[in-house]
Write a structure and sequence with these properties.
Length: 259
């Protein structure tokens, strides 16, 4: 009930911001308790997907002291979800865009959560340390399509900046109980690393982008997961059939977990 009411209020504020009826850049929310900082645009649909539809509910039970990695944390709704749902877990959140990271930091800081329970990193998950090119919309830090890949024509319509990067393999040196990954097309590079195994990542929910353009990469990756002993299912719990042509639309969220 609380999530439904909160979703209604967020949606109404999102409409008002979009139509320039109000010039708010943040909103106090009660479930979970925090001030949601969104800048110039409210990603109102994200709250519904996370808190009402539970799209990031881990596919297996997590231990009390679970290590959760949030790759592509945006303004922090997914981080709030993990901190609320798993009160004993430790969350490590990565957001590459500096402007978006500022919103993330303000949002999570406003929640009054014990700071020992989370770490926030203004870094991109990558295949090496250092810096990497990143495409973003400078006037819309809460945008959901900023990326290394420059998808959605951001390489033409946005701007290119350099951001700090961390080698994904270093994160996997310590076992991960649950990985949420939404990195706008860069998932194909990260998840093909040989360090990705059931021993390093017990479970994950990954958003795969632009499947039509990345069909071969996607098929190879799913077969790799099966070969490693992972289960691969849709959010509805259905087996993934690579022979199903309807699978290869734009984007899809999948649950991947060790048996």
């Amino acid at each position: 009930m609380f999530a439904r009411l909160q979703n209604f209020l967020i949606r109404k504020v999102g409409i008002a911001v979009k139509k320039n009826w109000i010039n708010w850049t943040s909103l106090r929310i009660f479930y979970p308790y925090a001030r949601l900082h969104f800048g110039s645009w409210m990603p109102s649909g994200v709250y519904k997907e996370i808190f009402r539809k539970h799209c990031y509910q881990p596919p297996i039970s997590l231990p009390d002291n679970a290590r959760i990695i949030d790759g592509g944390a945006n303004i922090g709704l997914s981080v709030l979800y993990f901190l609320t749902k798993f009160p004993q877990a430790h969350v490590e959140a990565y957001e590459a865009n500096p402007d978006t990271y500022d919103l993330l930091k303000k949002t999570i800081g406003s929640s009054k959560t014990d700071q020992r329970r989370y770490q926030l990193f203004n870094k991109a998950l990558h295949t090496s340390d250092g810096t990497v090119k990143f495409f973003t919309l400078p006037d819309c830090p809460a945008s959901l399509n900023a990326s290394i890949s420059g998808r959605d024509s951001l390489d033409q319509d946005g701007i290119e900046i350099e951001v700090e990067a961390v080698d994904f393999r270093r994160i996997l040196e310590k076992p991960v109980d649950f990985l949420k990954l939404d990195v706008e097309g860069h998932e194909y590079q990260l998840l093909t690393l040989p360090e990705v195994t059931p021993k390093s990542i017990r479970s994950m929910i990954v958003e795969f982008h632009d499947l039509e353009q990345n069909k071969e990469n996607f098929i190879n990756l799913i077969n790799q997961f099966y070969g490693l002993g992972y289960e691969v299912k849709t959010l509805e719990g259905e087996e993934v059939s690579l022979s199903d042509s309807t699978l290869f639309g734009k984007d899809i969220l999948l649950k991947i977990y060790a048996k």
